[in-house]
Write a structure and sequence with these properties.
The complex is a heterodimer of chains A (about 550) and B (about 400). Chain A has about 550 residues and is α/β, with parallel strands linked by helices. In chain A, about 35% of the residues lie in helices and about 25% in strands. In chain A, strands 1, 2, 3, 4, 5, 21, 22, 23 and 24 form a nine-stranded mixed β-sheet that branches. In chain A, strands 6-9-10-11-12-13-16-20 form an eight-stranded parallel β-sheet. Chain A starts with a strand and ends in a 5-residue tail after the last strand. Chain B has two domains: about 170 residues, Rossmann fold; about 170 residues, Dimethylsulfoxide Reductase, domain 2 (3-Layer(aba) Sandwich), CATH 3.40.228.10. The chains are: A alpha/beta (about 550), B alpha/beta (about 400).
């Protein structure tokens, strides 16, 4: 069947289309060339007065795995304030900051998002992460496997480095855990916290292995680059949330020596120590360096005011932050010689100097980083705010007068300490389309996603044009997923299962011998328990699997 | 092979299968033996004790459930797939969902939901903990392989060879094991009903508060103080407990004390806890229910929105207060019988084919065991690792998933 979406304003940056009135054709699950004969169209949907973009792609959102489920368990009060009534969605659910998997999928789709990526999948917990994602309806998904604090890798690095073995290990982990990319969190720091080190600077040695975060970062970033993964190493650096951490961030960037890297939730790593309160914005300096280093991409991790919960593998920094828990409870965990996790509920307050300045720092980063292809829209859901705040965030970026008004309502000292008032930039819809779909797709190597050219997956969001972008992006008129209409007037009307995206790269099988020995000697399960078969992902048709091949450079 | 019969989910068993009979070859765990070596059985689907086809039984189950106004789905001894499907059925039939063993981990869950805690996993304990405090000594008998696989393994990553692990048992330690090459066993003996008192005293010692008492729960304060000192000198003390084996009246106090001791310790050193429990698929059920509904069991789909109430929506309370009219009891693992109900309550039992349960149910549907008759996945006691279970014998017995799905499809 050939469907024609007629006469909307199309924003398709990957194909250079900037608000032109065009028709979009859907054939099956793909976007099709315009037919030679218009009469071959089976169905026409009149979407004049609407804006069309590819489905949104969230490059960093915590939607599945142990820490997410712990947050759900910890916070019944989060769900009780946000219940989804029977009939509102195909299946019931609940949750504001830590929604159930079903509610997560429906809400993303209802916002016009069609693909989401879980950025911190612990290898030992990967099977559960995938099962949770399988129960997240409609959207496509994928996950980044977490390395850099696992005893296996640190033992490798503690000896004279054998980069080939590290590369094989990384490639094996990708395959075993069905991951799309590799993530690192507080390199070596989570492991060091297990031995009671409370901070670990870039050049400080982990007591147990005598390895520094800089070494770990470089080896992993290089391995990911050499293996030819599309997405570079996804880095959550040292000293998250610590005033003055901009120095660490800048130092880390220098240490990468031009190796490609993605710096995630950079807002949390862009703090200076100026002013009476020893807390200031480092956004200008950080943005300048990002602008000058084309090997880097970032996502922001914007903070929004209100109740949320922070979920992170970074036990070291979550421990430090737990004193600010609101409500006053938190869960920490050391995990299986692999990593850890900390879940700390938090309320960002607009009248708090620190929270208000965090909000401003995020926006400064958005507005000062010049190349929209290297910056992606995230709140690090739910760490900065739940993903449902994206439409509000889009309005903040695209509407300077709205931004000024919001700035006038926050803690006055924070507003004064920020340069935000002097920044006049407004994101265009073309740029919004880049930071919410085209850019993430390109960075992740999803060639059929994030654009509307012929052959692309027919993941399409149609918004009724409105000058209030928050309103416009909250309730799309139509959302298509793989060519199926899944949302109409902001409400889910159909649910087709999404696809799991993974990357594969070859490895020397001798790595398995090493891993077998290691697991048999030390672990509490066999190595093969880590391996997730393709059938587990496909799961009797509940999920689809898309394998992306890495182009190994060595 | 992996074993589904307790929440440790050990995956290093050797099984031999002859003529579809399984013998546990490698393992001295009585629960594994009991579970695997149980006769496969030849039970058939039944309606009111009469043998019927599976199709007829499923049809009858749908009819009963549709007629019910207040159904409860419990037992829930199933693998993850079974639980996933069951939650869908619960939503359709507006049922309440609980697990037969939920009382085991509820107390811990509520301590966690109130103030949180700091926990660890099996491999962390195995490789890094130089001192383990086991609170409530019944762990030895109930989790036999915990000692072999976790407490006293041959090798570990981080403990120096010269330093043996110290393991303290607190409680009624008539069955405490002897010291081995890998660990020194010590104990504080007390009546199990007084463990909470020892833990309170221990907490006071660790946080530096002086107690006047010379003796607590018939234990000399000196012993408690010595343990406190050892804990403070340890690199990574880990507290292990099994909520099901703590006396129920004091279980919450005991777990709270442990959680707060760990908090106190973590200010200056490292420490963590590990709860053993959620057997019979309980940990899987709690996790799956949490991701699908937001809540760890005790949920009701009866109203317009999902309702969570760990006090009211508890199998025992619901049966006691006679608030349900239909019971769906699922147990494909532990072979537990459905609890007694009032005569008016309709009963649908989905259980292992080895046990005759047809006579006590309106509808009985036999199923296979995950990890024996079909492959499956379950979540381990630490709530982190999910273990894949292989099929080990040829069997026609359907999985819980398959049966529940058939019911859902006919709804």
């Amino acid at each position: 069947m050939l469907t024609r979406l007629r006469g909307a304003k199309v924003y398709d940056p990957s194909n250079g289309v900037d608000g032109e009135i065009q028709d979009i054709y859907i054939q099956g699950n793909r976007i099709a060339e315009p037919p030679i004969n218009v009469r071959s169209v089976d169905k026409t949907v009149d979407i004049r007065g609407c804006v069309v973009m590819a489905g949104g792609i969230d490059i960093h959102t915590h939607i599945g795995g142990g820490k997410v489920n712990i947050a759900r368990m910890l916070l019944p009060e989060d769900h009780q304030r946000d219940l989804v009534a029977r009939g509102r969605h195909p299946r019931m659910g609940c949750g504001h900051a830590a929604p159930s998997t079903l509610t997560t999928g429906y809400r993303y789709a209802e916002m016009g998002y069609t693909a989401c990526f879980e950025p911190a999948m612990l290898p030992v917990n990967a099977r559960q992460a995938h099962m949770e994602m399988a129960d997240t309806p409609i959207i496509d998904k994928g996950a980044y496997a977490l390395l850099g604090n696992d005893d296996f890798l640190l033992r490798l690095l503690a000896r004279p480095a054998d980069n080939e073995v590290v590369r094989d290990y990384v490639a094996w982990i990708l395959r075993a855990t069905q991951a799309l990319a590799i993530k690192i969190v507080n390199p070596g720091g989570i492991n060091a916290f297990k031995f009671n080190q409370r901070k670990l600077d870039l050049d400080e040695k982990n007591d147990s292995y005598q390895v520094t975060p800089r070494q770990i970062l470089k080896v992993l970033a290089k391995s990911v680059q050499d293996l030819g993964l599309n997405h570079p190493l996804h880095i959550h650096g040292c000293n998250l949330g610590v005033p003055g951490n901009m120095a660490t961030t800048l130092d880390m960037i220098r240490g990468l020596d031009g190796i490609a890297a993605h710096l995630t939730h950079l807002q949390f790593h862009s703090y200076g120590v100026e002013g009476d309160r020893r807390f200031s914005s480092g956004a200008a300096a950080i943005a300048e360096v990002i602008n000058a280093n084309p090997n880097l991409s970032i996502d922001v991790g914007q903070v929004m005011f209100g109740q949320t919960v922070t979920e992170s593998s970074d036990t070291m920094q979550q421990y430090a932050g737990h004193v600010f828990a609101d409500p006053k409870k938190w869960v920490g965990m050391d995990i299986e010689c692999d990593a850890g996790c900390g879940v700390v509920p938090f309320r960002y307050k607009d009248m708090s100097f620190v929270n208000a300045l965090q909000w401003a720092i995020g926006l400064e980063l958005f507005l000062l980083v010049e190349d929209p292809w290297r910056i992606f829209l995230t709140t690090d859901h739910p760490n900065g705010a739940p993903f449902t705040s994206y439409p509000h965030l889009i309005r903040l970026l695209a509407d300077q007068s709205f931004r000024s008004d919001m700035l006038a309502t926050i803690n006055a000292d924070a507003a004064h300490a920020s340069d935000l008032a002097s920044i006049k930039r407004e994101y265009s819809l073309y740029e919004i389309a880049i930071i919410t779909r085209a850019g993430p797709a390109k960075s992740l190597g999803l060639q059929n996603k994030g654009h509307l050219g012929p052959g692309a997956d027919a993941d399409i969001a149609v918004y009724r044009e409105h000058k209030d972008y928050e309103r416009m992006f909250t309730t799309p008129q139509y959302v298509y997923k793989n060519g199926t209409l899944v949302v109409y007037k902001g409400r889910v009307c159909d649910e087709a299962p999404g696809t799991t995206h993974v990357t594969r790269s070859d490895f020397n099988p001798t790595i398995e011998t090493k891993l077998n020995r290691y697991f048999n000697r030390y672990m509490t399960m066999k190595k093969n328990q880590i391996i997730i078969n393709d059938d587990e992902i496909r799961d009797h048709g509940r999920g689809k699997l898309k394998i992306h091949r890495a182009r190994r450079r060595l | 092979m992996a074993c589904p019969f307790c929440s440790l989910l050990c995956d290093d068993l050797s099984l031999s299968v002859t003529d579809n009979k399984i013998v546990v070859a490698s393992n001295d765990c009585h629960r594994a033996k009991l579970g695997f070596e149980l006769d496969p059985g030849r039970q058939y689907p039944q309606i009111e004790g009469q043998r019927v086809s599976q199709t007829a039984a499923i049809k009858a189950a749908v009819k009963l459930l549709r007629r019910g106004h207040r159904p409860l789905i419990s037992g829930l001894g199933a693998d993850i797939e079974g639980v996933r499907e069951t939650i869908r059925l619960a939503e359709l039939s507006k049922a309440i969902v609980d697990h037969g063993n939920s009382a085991d981990f509820d107390i811990g869950m509520r301590v966690m939901q109130k103030k949180g805690w700091y926990m660890t996993t099996l491999a962390e304990l195995r490789n890094r903990s130089d001192l383990v405090v086991i609170v409530g000594a019944d762990i030895v008998g109930n989790y036999e392989n915990f000692a072999r696989r976790v407490l006293a393994p041959k090798q570990n990553l981080h403990l120096q060879k010269s330093k043996r692990r110290r393991v303290f048992y607190i409680g009624d330690i008539a069955t405490a094991p002897k010291s081995t090459k890998a660990c020194v066993i010590e104990s504080i003996h007390c009546d199990s009903s007084r463990i909470a008192e020892i833990m309170a005293a221990l907490r006071a010692c660790i946080s530096g508060r002086l107690l006047q008492a010379k003796c607590v729960a018939k234990t000399r304060m000196g012993e408690v103080e010595a343990l406190g000192k050892a804990i403070k000198e340890a690199d990574y003390p880990v507290f292990v407990w099994a909520p099901a084996h703590l006396p129920s009246v004091q279980a919450d106090l005991t777990i709270q004390s442990i959680a707060r001791i760990i908090d106190d310790l973590n200010r200056t050193q490292r420490a963590a806890g590990l709860a053993l429990g959620g057997d019979n698929g309980g940990m899987s059920a709690a996790n799956v229910c949490t991701w699908l509904t937001g809540y760890p069991l005790h949920v009701s789909f009866a109203g317009k929105t999902i309702d969570y109430d760990p006090v009211q929506y508890k199998t025992s309370a619901l049966l006691e207060h006679k608030t349900i009219d239909t019971l769906v009891w699922i147990d494909s693992i532990g072979n537990t019988a459905a609890p007694a109900t009032d005569p008016g309550v309709r009963r649908i039992v989905i259980g292992r084919a080895s046990t005759e349960q047809g006579s006590i149910a309106d509808v009985f549907i036999p199923v296979g065991v995950p990890g024996i008759d079909h492959a499956g996945t379950m979540i381990r006691t630490d709530s982190v690792v999910s273990i894949h279970l292989d099929r080990v014998r040829t069997s026609r017995a359907p999985s819980v998933r398959k049966i529940i799905r058939s019911i859902v499809e006919q709804w």
